[in-house]
Amino acid sequence: MNDLEERTLYMDHAATTFMKPEVLAAMAPYFSEHFGNPSSLYRFAGEPRNGVEAARGQVAAAIGAGPEEIFFTAGGTEADNWAIKGVALANRKHGDHIVTSAIEHHAVLHTCEWLERQGFSVTYLPVDEFGRVDPGDVEEAITDRTILVSAMTANNEIGTIQPVAEIGRVAHDHGVLFHTDAVQAIGAVPIDVDAMNIDLLSLSGHKFYGPKGTGALYIRRGTRVETLIHGGGQERRRRAGTENVPGIVGLGRAIELATADIAGHNRRIASMRDRLVRGILDAIPDSRLNGHPTERLANNANFSFRYVEGESILLLLNARGICASTGSACSSGSLEPSHVLLAIGLPHEEAHGSLRLTLGDANTEDDVDYVLEVLPEVIGRLREISPLTPPSPRVPEAE
Amino acid sequence: MYTEKVIEEFTNPQNVGELADADGVGEAGSPTCGDTMKIYLKVEGDRIADARFRTFGCAAAIASSSVATRMILGMTLAEAWSLSNAEVLDALGGLPEPKVHCSLLAPDAIRVAINDYRVRRGLEPWERKSCSGGGDCGSCPKKG
Ligand SMILES: Cc1ncc(COP(=O)(O)O)c(C=O)c1O
Ligand code: FES
Question: A395 C-alpha vs ligand 2 centroid, how far in Å?
Fold first, then answer.
């Protein structure tokens, strides 16, 4: 066994990221040293309180909001739940209809489905073959009963970036609130909530090198949103529960780092990603790139390889130390293929052979080389096993 | 989530391929997720002399195919016919609950191949009921 066989190569940063040392360092004092409860009155609680408020400022600055518009949550899922249920419950007398897209994260889709069971109605807009929502479709879907449009800033599976500002403008033209799940977009898509017509925005710390179980919901000043978590008076009485002080401090530091130089970061990551995509499509026949050719997250590559199944790909990659993910039915507990891949029109067998590689800050050109070496072997091996592989595969004959 | 046995069988599957001069060929697929297995049998006398497979599916499907082709080598056709998915599961040290259906693939494909062989020889195909894998539905010929 040489070193290469033993390496772990992480290319699943859409699932989660490692935490940066700077973030850990920022959090460290808030575990044992500044452990006070921010709600306490004595001076000892001042430092934790300052830590939380500094983080609120960091999050606000990253998205062009005011600190009083930022509310900390226990992650992206809670922020999505709060935004959608909160708006629905607070605005019921104005209407009962929500417009969203077919490719949202389950944190949005399952929340909408729950609201349907409570008597709301939801329109799930289709997307085009690249995963884009047409703002014109949003306009058509809005009725006088519509209270909310929710569309993600960027998709977690195929990386497609939505025309968020346009969708927000359509919503506002009709006096409808606009929520966006920006969980995958922070640090990759520059966000300005005013310029982009956003009323509510969800984000999650562990997608941009911050701690897991931390997140925030931006709520535009004056927006009517029902409280979901009742209890103490934290977060200006809108989200109860003693603050996760170290987590919040880490979230603040992480978002500051992630948004300091988005363009530079994207250039570096996209150049590796583009080499990876070209290399794979060149080396592996009957392969395709899923998602949008240009309007996509800089770190996202999502392929389909015909004749093979995604879980098998993952396990063979895993045997070579590569961490990736798939939208194959066989790898989901429900045995349903990814709703995102189906929504962009992939037939089941292409969704089956899907593979997502998402790069991150620790990846190097060397990592790209390694994947370019291993992945064609893995696909070739599985195609030898598959009965669907055409008899004369379009690969150069070996001598 | 998989046993070591499954991983081993999946990463080094045995009997992958086709038999150009197969005496019986069978294909089975599961509607659950679209997996497909094709099996080729060589029969000598009443026994399975050789078996090859190709499978499109997850690691559990490929591992089941591999282990099943090894199990039926040397069996009589009647014995191979009654191979149950429970036996395949056993040989793999079990599969996670959502993957149990993948172990039905190989016994199904084997029965289709055996009937293909019988029909080619001008024999009545054996009756296949939808198989629970328990071997107790009455449609499996008795062993021996
Ligand atoms: C687009 C999107 N929304 C929401 C979530 C949920 O975030 P969290 O894991 O912080 O609950 C994720 C992450 O899995 C995501 O990718
Ligand atoms: S082949 Fe789909 S789950 Fe096993």
Answer: 27
Domains of chain B: 4-120 (3.90.1010.10)
Domains and their CATH numbers in chain A: 3-17+261-385 (3.90.1150.10), 21-258 (3.40.640.10)
Q: Are B66 and B9 in contact (CB under 8 A)?
A: yes
Q: Please give the single-letter amino acid code of residue A160.
A: T
- Asked about A323 being catalytic, the answer comes back as no
Which candidate from B7, B34, B55 shows the least CB-CB separation from A386? B55
Nearest to A385 among B16, B98, B102 (CB): B16
Tell me: pLDDT of B116 over 90: yes
Q: To the nearest 10°, the Cα dihedral for A132, A134, A139, A145?
A: -30
In a 13 Å sphere around the CA of B127, the CA atoms on its Cβ side amount to 4
Residue A313, both tokens: 């790909």
Q: Is A156 annotated as a binding residue?
A: yes
User: How far away, in angstroms, is B84 Cα from ligand 2 center?
Assistant: 18
pLDDT higher for B32 or A353?
Answer: A353
Rounded CA separation B38/B54 (Å): 5
How much is the pTM?
Answer: 0.93
